[in-house]
Specification:
This protein is of the alpha/beta class. The protein has a single domain, classed as L-arginine/glycine Amidinotransferase, Chain A. The protein has a 4-stranded mixed sheet with strand order 1-16-2-3, covered by helices on one side. Helix 5 crosses helix 13. The model has no long low-confidence stretch (mean pLDDT 90).
């Protein structure tokens, strides 16, 4: 049975809780960070430590809530209808067969990381009801928890952890399930700095982004590229129009947070009709090589990147997650196994491709391998 009600506190329950003196939310999660370091040079440095999400944390949102519809509006009508019919349910209840496939694909990804030599931190236990219902105060009965995709926990820039607030409200706080893992990382690495983006809620959610930089790409020389998705190029200069990924104020706040550490933040705009986040559209392959579909970007790349080679992604392969890849190192990358054309083009350039099946996850959620990955340690 799903945990859908937070137990009411009574004096008897309070006394029992104090007697138990329980100080752990997720048993053993903090300890998984033992011996780990917090440091990310850029996105294709050698992957040494990663968090992977919880296959049990898959509670479906209301796709027509304004804060979600900003991103979900590009989904096929039948997919929107399915989300609406099952909003508030865990996928394992709404569609047990597909949930099992999703869990298997996530475990396959985690095992690929382990085989590459990376340490994997993951919770597979059912999160507490208080976590599941954490965002219900402003999203109502369907505002529940999603932590299947760990990339939404935030990013690491050098030795600085930044917990982001994602575009969608229930994902803005999904890292709370892993808060003890972050505590363990900071305890184990005396150089680690831990920051959190300013709280975006409660705020009006008509445009869904609150305060958020959205998804980003991390390049060498401390360059961060933030992508904002718009459904019409005319909206770029109209801040009243919705962005599918973060907003300009969120990017500016991130810039100010990281400027003392030497990082630069540049912004680009993309056509949100192709996808909702820059990391589902423009993967970094290795030094001097990215991939992106034709006409996806609406503004130029930063000057640092304009000489990089670009592999053109087939629009049909976007729909299976080709744009959502995760490098293991400067010469090896994980790409969803179904993206045959992209795999062929990447291998032509001398990069080893590790294909990992992830089509069920992507077809259900529109988020793939990179979205499922929080890299906290990348160092050559």
């Amino acid at each position: 049975m799903e945990k859908d009600i937070i137990p009411e506190w009574t004096e008897e329950r309070a006394i029992a809780a104090l007697k138990e003196n329980k100080q752990v939310m997720i048993e053993g999660l903090r300890e998984q960070a033992n011996g780990q370091k917090v440091y990310v040079e850029h996105e294709y440095a050698k992957l040494r430590g990663v968090m992977v999400g919880n296959p049990n944390s898959t509670y479906l949102p209301d796709p027509f809530h304004p804060s979600w519809y900003t991103s979900f509006r590009s989904l096929p009508k039948d997919k929107l209808a399915w989300f609406a019919k099952n909003r508030g349910k865990n996928i394992r209840e709404a569609d047990p067969e597909n949930w099992q496939k999703m869990a298997e694909e996530l475990e396959g990804l985690a095992e690929t990381f382990r085989q590459s030599g990376a340490h994997v931190i993951q919770n597979k236990q059912e999160p507490p009801a208080e976590v599941i219902n954490y965002t219900a105060g402003w999203l109502g009965q369907y505002g529940r928890h999603w932590a299947f995709h760990a990339q939404a926990f935030g990013e690491v820039f050098g030795n600085v952890i930044v917990n982001f607030h994602e575009t969608q409200p229930s994902i803005r706080y999904n890292y709370i399930e892993y808060i003890e893992a972050f505590m363990g990382l900071v305890e184990n690495d005396p150089e680690a700095v831990w920051m959190t983006m300013p709280d975006p809620m409660p705020m009006p959610t008509a445009f869904g982004v609150g305060l958020s930089p959205g998804d980003i790409r991390i390049f060498p020389n401390k360059l961060i590229v933030v992508g904002h998705g718009v459904h019409n190029p005319a909206h770029i200069n109209d801040r009243s129009k919705p962005r599918s990924s973060g907003n300009e104020l969120g990017a500016e706040v991130l810039r100010r947070m990281l400027k003392p550490f030497g990082w630069r933040v540049e912004q680009v705009y993309f056509d949100a009709n192709f996808g909702y986040h820059i990391d589902v559209l423009m993967p970094i392959i290795r030094e001097g090589l990215i991939a992106i579909g034709n006409n996806v970007l609406l503004t130029p790349l930063p000057k640092d990147l304009q000489a990089w080679e670009v592999i053109e992604i087939d629009p049909e392969e976007y729909s299976i997650g080709a744009g959502n890849t995760t490098p293991l190192s400067s010469d090896s990358i994980i790409i969803t196994a179904e993206a045959k054309n992209l795999i062929k083009e990447v291998e032509k350039r001398g990069v080893n491709v590790v294909p990992v099946p992830f089509s069920t996850v992507y077809s259900q959620t529109g988020s793939g391998i990179h979205c499922a990955t929080f890299s906290y340690w990348r160092e050559d």
